[in-house]
Design goal:
Layout (H helix, E strand, L loop, with lengths): L1 H17 L5 H16 L7 H14 L5 H14 L5 H15 L4 H17 L5 H19 L4 H18 L5 H11 L8 H17 L2 H16 L4 H17 L1 H4 L3 H11 L5 H17 L8 H12 L12 H14 L10 H18 L4 H14 L6 H22 L4 H4 L4 H19 L5 H17 L2 H18 L6 H15 L4 H4 L3 H12 L4 H18 L14 H11 L5 H18 L4 H16 L4 H12 L10 H11 L5 H17 L6 H10 L9 H17 L7 H4 L1 H8 L7 H14 L8 H13 L3 H6 L2 H16 L4 H9 L8 H17 L8 H8 L5 H17 L1 H14 L4 H16 L12 H10 L6 H17 L1 H11 L5 H12 L9 H13 L7 H17 L8 H11 L7 E6 L2 E6 L2 H17 L6 H11 L4 H17 L1 H6 L1 H12 L9 H22 L8 H11 L2 H16 L1
Helix pairs in contact: 1-2, 1-3, 2-4, 3-4, 3-5, 4-6, 5-6, 5-7, 6-8, 7-8, 7-9, 8-10, 10-12, 12-15, 14-15, 15-18, 16-18, 18-20, 19-20, 19-22, 20-23, 22-23, 22-24, 23-25, 24-25, 25-28, 27-28, 28-30, 29-30, 30-32, 31-32, 32-34, 33-34, 33-35, 34-36, 36-39, 39-42, 40-42, 42-44, 43-44, ...
């Protein structure tokens, strides 16, 4: 190590000598090598060497060669991290001194040096950074006072940089010194100096104390109230803009003072002042939305006036003579006027931007915007300045987008009332007319804006396409003309046509297809490949519209078929891969729709498509093409089908997943539609590749492979003769997988049903039954408890094959019935019950003797799993014969009090199976009165489990007959018993289903009565009511449209901690705190979380945040939920979150610094770790809020985290994970 140190010092001494060389290249290389030496971890400079290096680098800053100066600056930046504090101060003082030099070259390089030093100062080293900052501030304040404008400018720029990075290190008296230095510069004759002064003042307000801040505000007030020149007023308004942007939380309390003055100055006859006022209003709208609410009408009126502000132009074109006179008058008044002197466009543009922000941020004013703003914006589409017109279009697009966002969760019945959508529909004719006029303008940018606006309009109001397509077509045809449009407009036009074709309103477009087709074919011939691709894409959709195969057509498509075919065929051989792939798909669409017109050309074309199937690059596209052709209702002849199957079989062992998925689907389609043309020998190649696809690693591929096997079994069963050895081992592995459920399980059942129908040797009913039951019989005792899912899977498969072979059903049921005895193993008993239940669901088992008794006896078996299986089996069997079994179940509920819960579960299975879809409900209607009365008798059972099942049954029965049963529930919700009220409210929760249902119209009228139980004195009733509200908000939000204003305060009230519900319980020598209100608070916060995700636009976000802030200090479970809500709000409403940041940061900081007692149990440590991780995730979400760096509390918490190694590790690990996602 000593040798290495000596060697380093020797190298540095040598480099110092080379730095004095008269050769500039030597000096440059010496400094470059010095940087390398200094950056080494092993190098530590002594005092003498430090002095020499610092002195030499400062000297080289005055070098005549610019490159040497620049690399010397770079070396200084590296050096300050290695040298002592006093040396850094020496460098800074020397640089500050030279920064005020009269020589431009010396001054410039010194300023660059100071910027480099500032950027390299360590954030964590408080003393060094504070001292250096104070040194720089003192010198820069002096420089600002110099008469040399260049020195002032550079000093102000450096001050802004320094404060931006290290403002929190600058003390109050230095802030005062800076303020006193920059105030006179607000009135400087040099605009650049004014702007830099404003920048310094804007950054200062983030870090200065209240005394300095008050001084700044007072000066701003005086500056705007005293009549300075227009230039000075402009500067002060810019400063207000900067202060609000940088420290809006501080400035928000002064909005009422400054906003009237900004509005007043916006009327001055000075375009720059008007623009600055409008820009300041924009920042007020963005940063202080709550404070400007009372002034919104004034701001809107002002912006609308300024949107039409164009004193140098006359828009009245109705009277040409008058227009000419006006132009002459203008010319006489200002002979030297030109468009270059016109700055009014800046005012109009700022007004448009301001209106766009209002529309985006104030969704509650949409109705007012449509009444006042929408007509004005439509009128201003005639704006002469291209950029201003684009901003007006964007403003209207923002209005449409907000309309879409705010109404997408509302019901159709609500939208039929007075709403933004209704007002848009009324104004649509004027809007479409104005857009169509602009589509033929010479400005390409304007045309593109038209297409964007039309897209947004159709997203909100899809019916407009059908109503106004005839008005739009002329503009589209004009834009499709290659001579009148550039490439960008052509692409946008084609993209828009493709977009409107996606609405599938074929009838609206068919009358115009004859006009569009020639122009589309013309674009396909374009030299630019992107236009060709887009043209082919549009052509593909147009083919569907020309001859829809499921409807009639009024198009004379025969005129264009040959041209379309020839144009596309040429592109099949195109050199560009994108063009070639799209041509393949378009050609497939042509064949699919017009094969009967192209008989002579099909063989050549199909051979070419087969070649594309063999090609590694185009094979996936070719697979999609063949799928389109194979599914055509025209039943296109495919002479290449056997060759295609052989090629496709080779794709099944490829690694590319999407290739395998599309291949399997195509094979299934080909076998279904061309089974009589397929050679069985080719299918053997397919079968050989299938076993490897049947595994749980990719369940989707396994599922579609089972579908393919079922199709083969249906059309070519002989191919499956040998699958016992090849495929069945993989099938059995899948059957044992816990992932086999849902659609995958259905596919497995259908496969076995298809297989048993084949009557293959060794795969008959009895063979398959043995195969499916062997895993249960051969299962070891250890695996019986681990693999419980296999009972349910195999029982469904046994039932599936039995339903197909009904002649075996009763014998099999009797065989399994023998296994339902007390002495038989629980696993076999469980499996037998499930099999009998699944078979009984489809086949009436009434004729089997003692079946009821056997199932009831199973209720007495010790195993809870067997009891539940017996209950499930009884419910399933009842579905096979309701007349026989349902009265029996209802009777058992009354006569078997000890087994009441199990019998209720059976009834629940029956009701759940028949409640949805609605068509099944008719089977149960005759039994409902008897069931209903029996359920009401047991509503007040002391067992919560029984009450829960009864609630669900009552709710599902109400779904079947809402007219009669819903009023009964309304009566019972007034019952004196709180238990009955809670059961009834929960029953309504089960009437809320995702899909549309006839009960919705009844609930819309009555849901308020059930939700009024949020004011019930009983805690459990209120909790049930919150659960009901959460379900409605999640699934049927439109039911709450008229109730939110009254219900929200009740929900917010339940988020508060009720001290009367907190009790201290003694447990031996220990005391334990029990909070009986915790569950209801959690339910209330869960409701808030649902509202946040479903209808944040209809909620006062500030009030919402107030209750979240309380939740951040609550119990562990509630904290976790509120952290998640803060994360979502940071994305959805960042401006509002930023305003409440101080209140959010306080509990987050408390969580980060929280500690538990060393004597605490392990669970407490784990909970704390989880809380801290959630807090870090929340901080990362907050960190992405624009301008979050202006919040001091957030910055302090981040600094606190960085100073704690444990917290830093958690924060950085979550940061890496978030970036990875």
């Amino acid at each position: 190590m000593a040798d290495m140190m000596a060697s380093s010092f020797q190298n540095i001494s040598s480099l110092l000598e080379k730095m004095q060389s008269p050769d500039q290249d030597y000096r440059f290389m010496a400094i470059s090598d010095m940087i390398v030496q200094i950056q080494k971890d092993t190098v530590k400079l002594d005092d003498e060497t430090e002095q020499k290096v610092v002195r030499m680098l400062l000297k080289l800053l005055e070098d005549r060669n610019g490159e040497v100066q620049n690399i010397a600056v770079k070396c200084l930046g590296v050096l300050i991290k290695k040298i002592k504090h006093e040396r850094v101060e020496t460098i800074v003082m020397d640089l500050c001194k030279n920064a005020m030099s009269e020589k431009d070259r010396i001054r410039d390089i010194s300023n660059i040096g100071l910027k480099t030093v500032i950027s390299q100062l360590p954030l964590a080293s408080g003393d060094l950074t504070r001292n250096i900052c104070e040194c720089i501030v003192i010198e820069l304040v002096k420089a600002v006072k110099w008469d040399n404008v260049s020195i002032q400018f550079e000093a102000l720029e450096l001050l802004a940089d320094l404060l931006n990075m290290f403002g929190n290190f600058v003390r109050s008296h230095h802030m005062f010194a800076i303020l006193r230095a920059i105030i006179p510069k607000f009135c400087s004759p040099r605009q650049a100096v004014q702007k830099r002064s404003v920048a310094v003042c804007s950054v200062m307000v983030r870090f200065c104390d209240d005394v300095v801040y008050k001084e700044i505000i007072n000066h701003m007030w005086n500056g705007l109230t005293i009549n300075y020149s227009d230039s000075d007023i402009h500067t002060y308004i810019q400063c207000i803009f900067g202060i609000c942007r940088e420290a809006h939380q501080r400035f928000s309390s002064h909005i009422e003072e400054f906003l009237p003055m900004i509005l007043q100055y916006s009327l001055k006859e000075d375009d720059d002042i008007r623009e600055s006022c409008l820009l300041t209003l924009q920042i007020f709208i963005q940063k202080c939305p709550k404070e400007i609410t009372t002034h919104l009408s004034e701001i809107i009126s002002l912006c609308m006036d300024h949107l039409t502000y164009d004193p140098n132009y006359n828009y009245d074109y109705e009277d040409e003579i008058e227009n000419k006179c006006n132009v002459c008058a203008i010319n006489e008044d200002s002979d030297n006027y030109s468009d270059d002197d016109d700055t009014a466009w800046k005012v109009r543009r700022a007004a448009a931007k301001c209106l766009e922000l209002l529309v985006t941020n104030r969704t509650e004013m949409l109705m007012e915007f449509y009444q006042i703003l929408s007509p004005a914006l439509i009128t201003r589409f005639k704006e002469r300045d291209e950029n201003v017109k684009s901003d007006i279009f964007q403003t209207y697009a923002a209005l449409l987008k907000q309309t879409n966002l705010s109404t997408r969760h509302l019901s159709a019945s609500f939208l039929e009332k007075e709403s933004p959508v209704i007002m848009l529909q009324e104004q649509a004719p004027h809007l479409i007319k104005a857009i169509c006029e602009q589509m033929k303008q010479n400005s390409m940018k304007t045309r593109r804006d038209c297409f964007n606006l039309l897209r947004t309009l159709f997203d909100v109001f899809p019916e407009a396409l059908n109503l106004y397509i005839s008005d739009i077509i002329p503009g589209l045809l004009y834009c499709l003309n290659k001579q009148k449009s550039n490439n960008s407009v052509l692409l946008d036009t084609l993209s828009f046509i493709h977009y409107i074709l996606g609405f599938h309103q074929v009838q609206a477009l068919q009358p115009h297809i004859n006009e569009i087709i020639p122009l589309i074919l013309n674009t396909i011939d374009h030299d630019y490949y992107r236009i060709t691709v887009e043209g082919l894409l549009v052509l593909q959709e147009l083919i569907k519209a020309m001859r829809p195969l499921n409807a009639s057509s009024i198009c004379n498509y025969g005129l264009f078929i040959k041209d379309i075919y020839n144009c596309t065929f040429v592109r099949l051989k195109h050199s560009d891969i994108e063009v070639k792939e799209q041509a393949i798909l378009t050609m497939a669409q042509i064949i699919s729709n017009f094969a009967d017109f192209l008989q002579k050309d099909l063989s050549v074309c199909l051979s070419l498509l087969l070649d594309r199937l063999r090609n590694d690059i185009t094979r996936l596209t070719a697979i999609k093409a063949f799928a389109m052709i194979a599914m055509s209702p025209l039943r296109v002849e495919l002479p290449v089908v056997n060759e295609a199957i052989l090629i496709l079989s080779s794709f099944l062992h490829q690694n590319q997943r999407i290739l395998k998925v599309n291949t399997i689907n195509l094979l299934d389609c080909l076998i279904r539609n061309y089974y009589d043309h397929i050679n069985i020998d080719y299918l053997n190649h397919v079968i050989d590749e299938l076993p490897v696809l049947l595994n749980e690693l990719d369940l989707h591929i396994a599922q579609i492979t089972l579908v393919l096997l079922k199709t083969i079994a249906q059309y070519h069963p002989s191919v499956l003769q040998g699958i016992t050895e090849k495929i069945f081992p993989e099938i059995m592995k899948l059957l044992k997988s816990p992932l086999l459920q849902g659609t995958m399980l259905v596919a497995m059942q259908q496969f076995f049903q298809g297989l048993v129908k084949c009557h293959l040797q060794g795969l008959g009913y009895n063979d398959l039954l043995q195969i499916l039951t062997n895993p249960i019989l051969q299962m070891s005792d250890k695996k019986k408890n681990k693999n419980k899912h296999i009972y349910y899977t195999l029982s469904k498969c046994v039932a599936a094959i039995t339903v197909v072979c009904r002649n075996h059903a009763f014998a099999v049921v009797n065989q399994f019935l023998q296994n339902i005895n007390v002495g038989v193993s629980n696993s076999l008993c469980l499996f037998s019950l499930l099999v009998i239940g699944e078979i009984g669901r489809e086949i009436d088992l009434t004729s089997i003797n003692h079946l009821k008794d056997a199932i009831l006896q199973s209720f007495l078996i010790d195993s809870e799993e067997v009891k539940i299986a017996a209950s499930y089996a009884l419910g399933c069997i009842a579905l096979g014969n309701l007349q026989e079994y349902l009265p029996f179940i209802v009777q058992e509920i009354e006569t078997q009090p000890d087994q009441q819960y199990l019998v209720l579960l059976s009834l629940q299975e029956v009701i759940n199976s028949l409640s949805i879809p609605q068509e099944n409900a008719s089977e149960l209607l005759g039994f409902i009165p008897e069931i209903w009365q029996q359920l009401l008798l047991h509503c007040q059972s002391p067992e919560e489990g029984i009450r829960g099942v009864i609630s669900e049954c009552l709710g599902k029965l109400t779904l079947m007959d809402p007219t009669r049963l819903l009023p009964e529930l309304e009566e019972h919700v007034k019952n004196a018993s709180p238990i009955m009220r809670a059961v009834v409210v929960l029953a309504i929760k089960y009437t809320i289903v995702e899909q549309d249902h006839p009960i919705d119209s009844f609930l819309r009228q009555n849901i308020g009565q059930f939700l009024n139980t949020l004011q019930d004195p009983d805690l459990n009733v209120r909790r049930a009511s919150l659960m009901l509200f959460n379900s409605v908000a999640h699934n049927k939000l439109f039911l709450l449209e008229d109730l939110l204003d009254t219900i929200l305060p009740l929900i917010y009230n339940e988020t508060k901690v009720n001290e009367f519900l907190i009790q201290e319980v003694k447990m031996g020598p220990f005391k334990h705190t029990v909070d009986e209100g915790l569950d209801i608070r959690k339910a209330a916060f869960e409701c808030m979380y649902t509202l946040l995700n479903k209808c944040i636009d209809f909620i006062d976000v500030y009030e919402f945040l107030n209750h979240i802030e309380a939740g951040l200090k609550d119990h562990y479970d509630i904290k976790m939920l509120t952290y998640l809500m803060v994360e979502h709000l940071a994305q959805l409403r960042p401006k509002e979150v930023l305003q409440e940041m101080d209140n959010i940061i306080q509990p987050l900081s408390a969580t980060c610094t929280m500690k538990v007692s060393p004597r605490s149990v392990q669970q407490e440590f784990e909970r704390l770790d989880e809380l801290k991780k959630c807090a870090m995730r929340t901080l990362l979400a907050l960190q992405k809020i624009p301008n979050i760096e202006t919040n001091l509390s957030f910055n302090e918490l981040l600094m606190q985290i960085k100073n704690s190694p444990d917290l830093t590790q958690i924060f950085e690990s979550h940061s890496v994970q978030k970036n990875a996602h």
